[in-house]
Amino acid sequence: MAAILNGIMKAYLRNRFKRIESIRNNSVQLQEAILQRLLRQARKTTFGRAHGFDSITNRADFVNQIAIQEYEAFVPNITAAMNGTPDMLWPGQTKWFAKSSGTTSNQSKFLPISKEMLRKNLVPSGWDALCVYYQERPDAQLFAEKSLIYGGSLYDYDQTSQTKFGDVSAIMIDHIPKVAKPFCVPEQAIALDADWEKKLMLMANAIVEENITMMSGVPTWNVVLFNHLLDLTGKEHIHELWPQLQLYLHGGVSFDPYRKQFKEFLPNQMDYLEVYNASEGYFGLQDQLGREDMLLLTDNGVYFEFLPFGELKSHQPKTVSLEDIQIGECHAIVISTCAGLWRYLVGDTIEFTSIEPYRFRITGRTNQHINVFGEELMISNVEKAIAEASQYTNASVCEYTVAPIFLNRYHKGGHEWVIEFYQKPDSLHTFTTQLDKSLQQLNHDYAAKRYKGMALQAPVVRPVQRGSFHGWMKSKGKLGGQHKVPRLSNERNFMDEFLRYVADTFAYV
């Protein structure tokens, strides 16, 4: 029976792969059609009437009549929609909102998730990833057994029982198609439990006897789950427990710092497939195994524009459309969606690696980079350098954060790194030296500032005890879900507060 079910799903996914081929070959045309469809559907909304959607006939009209928006511009409409007012940003009543919250700010964002967004973007993206995988691995047996899928939590909104909010992963789990539910573990009550520490223990007990073939989730929490499972079973590694586990779908954070850890937990042949998922929607996926870039999903109910990095601080920033993209340039993503976000600045930066088809890699966040000394240090540089230094010194990294050391009359400027190691390096000095060397090779601006130590001193790496970042996040009420440790900052606010917490709670190592 398992083989028959897998065969049926394989045939469905093979047919569905035509959609991926269409995206590869027709992205510009698909995007033009999506913009027209979005404007047509939303013209009678409060936002559409206020911005003259009826008079917009092309992209030039669109960018002239609507400024690039950040979250604060949408708050009045979102608040009204959460309170039950229909037709604010998108036709009808929006009942779902993805909650996104940064670590350094207490402000939460509530991003609208319409029925259209679920139908056109969130739910299809899971099938997109699977059809890519079966195309790459025709002998895959994912549907012969179970898939491990878990997410954040859902809550009722106080003002009206019709509105729910929570992590976008939880909203997706709540809307898993009936045909897929028999293949998913654990049960929904556990998968959506709000207490992450309790949830991971319950999950370990619930799935220990299952035969898992595919899993997804944030790498940090999967490492915690793996440790629970090994403690529970006495196994040496996870493949002893789940010998048929073959695919890990990951996204949300760079996987590079976790590769060595996962290789230790999963020593057998494994495939890793990256997806670009955000609270606002799914934007891309790795459409070929072994590549380090992702295919832009141009037929998922989202219209994309791209803001050159140098335009971010402009009073009248000018975006480029897909057909004008230049390979190798850094752009911030601007989206308009079938949930009612219009010319919304997501906050992520990407760099296109190909235009036939349109593939890209994530380079960082608009508000997470270090450029205090003109070094233009991006997350993509940092993640790669950590991976190279870890491999060179037999180390693996759990969490980290980086902030500037501001220059004064007594010392030059530099970067302070606080790192929680899963496995400590053979030599911290060698790790630091290799980290600095890799950064110079990856980033010419950083290398120029490090030349003979004239502008930047060597990085300072401060290791902290295992559990330090977890304890910090817990103390702030920010475990799990969309909460992430800020990697890079131009300021020292987070760094100094975290170091005070560590000094009061842990010992440095």
List the helices and strands and how they pair.
Layout lengths: L1 H41 L3 H5 L8 H7 L5 H12 L13 E6 L6 E6 L1 H22 L9 E3 L5 E3 L7 E3 L1 H7 L9 E2 L2 H4 L4 H12 L4 E5 L2 H15 L4 H4 L5 E4 L8 H7 L5 E8 L2 E5 L8 E3 L5 E7 L21 E8 L6 E12 L2 E8 L13 H15 L2 E10 L8 E10 L4 H15 L1 H7 L9 E5 L3 H8 L17 H13 L4
Parallel strand pairs: 1-5, 3-6, 3-7, 7-8, 8-9, 17-18
Antiparallel strand pairs: 1-2, 4-5, 9-10, 10-11, 11-15, 12-13, 13-14, 14-15, 16-17
Please characterize this protein's 3D structure.
This protein is α/β, with parallel strands linked by helices and 509 residues long. The chain has two domains: 2-365, ANL, N-terminal domain (Rossmann fold, 3-Layer(aba) Sandwich), CATH 3.40.50; 379-505, GMP Synthetase, Chain A, domain 3 (2-Layer Sandwich). Helices cover 38% and strands 21% of the residues. The protein contains 16 helices and 18 strands. It has helices spanning 2-42, 46-50, 59-65, 71-82, 115-136, 168-174, 188-191, 196-207, 219-233, 238-241, 259-265, 379-393, 428-442, 444-450, 468-475, 493-505, and strands spanning 96-101, 108-113, 146-148, 154-156, 164-166, 184-185, 212-216, 247-250, 271-278, 281-285, 294-296, 302-308, 330-337, 344-355, 358-365, 396-405, 414-423, 460-464. It has an eleven-stranded mixed β-sheet with strand order 6-3-7-8-9-10-11-15-14-13-12. A four-stranded mixed β-sheet has the order 2-1-5-4. A three-stranded mixed β-sheet has the order 16-17-18, with helices on both faces. A hairpin with a 2-residue loop joins strand 14 and strand 15. Helix 1 (2-42) packs across helix 5, helix 8 (196-207) packs across helix 9 and helix 13 packs across helix 14 (444-450). The longest helix is centred in the first third of the chain and has 41 residues, at 2-42. The chain is globular, with a radius of gyration of 23 Å.
